[in-house]
Amino acid sequence: MRLYPPVPVNSVQARAADVLPDGTAVGAGWFVSYNAYAMGRMESVWGEDARAYRPERWLDPDTAEGTFRPESPFRYIVFHAGPRICLGKEMAYIQMKSIVACVVEELEVAVDGGYTPRQVASLTLRMADGLPVMVKARS
């Protein structure tokens, strides 16, 4: 979701003058937009391997058992942050974990390593033609 966020760009309008966390002044009525798609690929935030899919980046390196370490919602902006954070965030995590657990228990799923997703521009980010995978039952 960091690399392919469901809502890749978001805009809001300031009801009153305010100051962003980095010190940028925002006037009343101004529109502020941010690009979660680009932010998920920023080397200044995620390191030189920002474009790499590395699930272990979410694990605490100080624990031998690899304890999950959540990122700040202001850094991992997929569900937005602050008082208007996505209400469905926790439900989305529960659904992802339960579906992955069910699929991995019963099936072997392999994605073609040479496949490059092609995105379709819309309100929510989606892949053109889906994601081709090979699926077979576990023995």
UniProtKB/TrEMBL annotation:
A Pfam family matched in the record: p450
Iron found in the keyword field: yes
Gene3D superfamilies xrefs: Cytochrome P450
Family indicated by similarity: Belongs to the cytochrome P450 family.
Protein name: Cytochrome P450
Source organism of the structure: Triticum turgidum subsp. durum
Domain of life from the UniProt record: Eukaryota
Keyword annotations of the record: Heme, Iron, Metal-binding, Monooxygenase, Oxidoreductase
Any GO BP: lipid metabolic process
Gene Ontology molecular functions: heme binding; iron ion binding; monooxygenase activity; oxidoreductase activity, acting on paired donors, with incorporation or reduction of molecular oxygen
